[in-house]
């Protein structure tokens, strides 16, 4: 990935604050919330090592890596908790699920942190609005605090999330690197440990700014390719992509709370269309198909119903999901009744390559062309954001109406796309 392409990216790093202790406080607030706590093993023998501690305990001097005996000596009121990794995994899945509602590009790097590439997620708002929405949902739905970094790459997003804790959202732009980072010691740069910092010190490189200005050949001679990476990182450059883990999801869904109650059939159909678009796009990203479409409807009094329908042939197309969602809505909701929230969840998922699809005798020749078209549109939106193509165009039967309804920015990808469609005899784009 080129440096110019990297600048266009918007990356979030979510770091759950004092995760293990926060999970216990969320699960049993009467016992642990607001108290100095620490998670450690071998509590009875008082020889266990503190894995993490709450911020109340940290304020008393309790640090990760000390023994339980040492922790109790500085904080006699410290509550020691035995680890419960099944519980931690449950909450980890919870905040990863919330993150996945805003982009399919979620990379879990540990049980309590992940990266999100939200470059193509502008339909959810600005980067700060997305970060605020995630932090709010994590707090409301899981009772957990988190810090979020916003930056043009993973390195700076990680460093941004570390700048303020707990419960903080921090933006770090590359142009701010000289002012905010160059005066700090090399070890403050994520990815550089104490031993590497000592080796840099022997080269008279003390600060991140000096590392940014260091001779690349000297760094390469001493550290190999790692030296090249360090110089780039010191200048705020990191081209590493967000790489989602490919554990098969059990369902893919999204809900939206409407800014005003909707009563008109065409109004809420447009919302269902957008939800069908978002969920099927995530489904295609996972290379999966769905056999069951479920809708969620909530009225202003918070009464909620869910209705589902299982289709004969698994699908990943927005047209099919939208059609089923509209039928469910028409069958179970009377037009004129106000709607406050709508959602679509795709269930009974399977990998597309493992699913025998029944082909229609009259459309099987068109299906490969339509799939190439949808793939090209997904690629455009991944690269240039949701507004590269007008979602409302999918009201037509053919997803190619998307292209007709909005001008796409002039790019080499667009030209290749139009050239391919022209070769197929479709010259009206």
Key features?
429 residues, alpha+beta, five-stranded mixed beta sheet, 42% helix, globular, disordered N terminus, disordered C terminus
Please describe what this structure looks like:
- By secondary structure, the chain is α+β, with helices and mostly antiparallel strands.
- It contains 18 helices and twelve strands.
- Strands 5-6-1-7-8 form a five-stranded mixed β-sheet. The chain has a four-stranded antiparallel β-sheet with strand order 9-12-10-11, covered by helices on one side. Strands 3-2-4 form a three-stranded mixed β-sheet.
- Helix 6 packs antiparallel against helix 7 and helix 14 packs antiparallel against helix 15.
- The chain starts with a helix and ends in a 6-residue tail after the last helix.
What is the topological layout?
Elements: H1 3-8, E1 11-16, H2 19-27, H3 29-32, E2 37-40, E3 50-53, H4 55-59, H5 68-74, E4 79-81, H6 85-100, E5 106-110, E6 113-117, H7 127-142, E7 146-151, H8 154-163, E8 169-171, H9 177-180, H10 194-202, H11 208-213, H12 216-223, H13 225-234, E9 252-262, H14 265-285, E10 288-298, E11 304-315, H15 318-332, E12 339-351, H16 366-384, H17 401-405, H18 412-423
Parallel strand pairs: 2-4, 7-8
Antiparallel strand pairs: 1-6, 1-7, 2-3, 5-6, 9-12, 10-11, 10-12
Helix pairs in contact: 6-7, 12-13, 14-15
Described by the principal axes of the CA atoms, the overall outline is globular
The amount of helix comes to: 40-55%
How many strand elements? 12
Query: How would you spell out the order of helices and strands?
Result: HEHHEEHHEHEEHEHEHHHHHEHEEHEHHH
Largest sheet: 5 strands, mixed
Q: Strand pairing plus helix content: what structural class? A: alpha+beta
Count of helical regions: 18
Could you name the ranges where pLDDT drops below 50 across 5 or more consecutive residues? 1-7, 358-366, 390-429
Distance between the amino and carboxyl termini:
29 Å
- Computed Rg: 25 Å
User: Strand order within the widest sheet?
Assistant: 5-6-1-7-8
* Strand residue percentage: 15-25%
Mean pLDDT across all amino acids: 83
